[in-house]
Model the fold of this input.
Amino acid sequence: MNRTVNIISKNFKKYNPESIEEYLELGGFEALKKAIEMGPQEIISTLKTSGLKGRGGAAFSTGRKWEYSANVKGDKKFIICNADEGEPATFKDRYLLEYDPFKVIEGMIIAAYTTGSTDGYIYIREEYKYLHNKVRKAIELAEKHGFLGKNILGSGLNFNIKVVSGAGAYVCGESTALIESIEGKSGRPRLKLTRTSKQGLFGLPTLVNNVETLAAVPPILEMGVEEYIKYGTHTSKGTKLISLCGNVNKPGAYEVPFGITLREIIYDIGGGIKDGKQLKFLQLGGASGAIIPAKLIDIKYCYEDLEEHGASVGSGAILVADETNKVTHFLKSVQDFFIHESCGKCTPCREGNRQLTKIINRFVTGNASVEDLKTVEKFANVMKYASFCGLGQTAPTALLTAIKYFPVEFYQQIDRIRKTS
Done:
């Protein structure tokens, strides 16, 4: 049974991304024309009504974020498209850049018109190198057809876009670390004394949005907000692009309405578990996301229901693990990732990840004790509340939820020691 929808993803594989003419034939840039007719205030009001939230994981109201940026005065203001998709198991932004780059560009132009911005950057992760020139080509074509540059469509808007990239650091997905990277500095998060909407890139007003967030704006304006909010739930309106992967028969990027259950995503969209095995757990939202046991797969995929169970939509990743996967071994791979990606700026994250890794390795090798289990929870909670940025704060999420839902697996490793000693 097909549970997917096609709003943000409706153009996937339907046109040549190197042909702006084909994008125009599909209704491309009609939303931009409509936005100019609407004016900034109506656009902001529409986005607020749509319930669109940041699709990179922060889940902050897009309408409110644009309103803050629009209210900041400045002769030079920036729009940054965050395409530093470094969360493991997440690849939906790659699909947008690869199959519908003009929609992302159109969303950026609408954002620039709404907030009065003059310059844009698309920060693409280094590992997506093959996409860099493709996106540059799309920008060049948009310029040639008058959608970028001076006085766009007679609106008085002057706006240009550049593609930039860092050195492949996961932490640069955090907005201030990304800004530091664009400025040529080491990609480490800033102390947020003021919002980036007031003081961001080069100390000037800056709006940072995820790829999917920007790509969602044109279809919302084009189809009308009332039609868009027919999808989803009362609190989680509209649709979401997900990255489905792991031990599932049909991995891929799919667009689903909020409110669909995890069971429907795995079995109706994903075709069930590979090789007829049993589902054991899911990790939602990437490596920094919660681990959810199979018994909870009838939860609705929406912000409010997931939060009730200590999980979140996050980046939109849904990683499926079958009965052959050991939770402690899975956690080791998660910790190996975070110990590699921690920028080292703050002690709770830098040292906390090192200590968590050491203790989890003891569980993997069967050398852990009851005291190790108490210690690992204590360290994880210190990281959660004391780390400088979201990386350290969410790095222990998988561990804490695994202990909550799979305590037996940890105690089994401890019992192994007792039985052999």
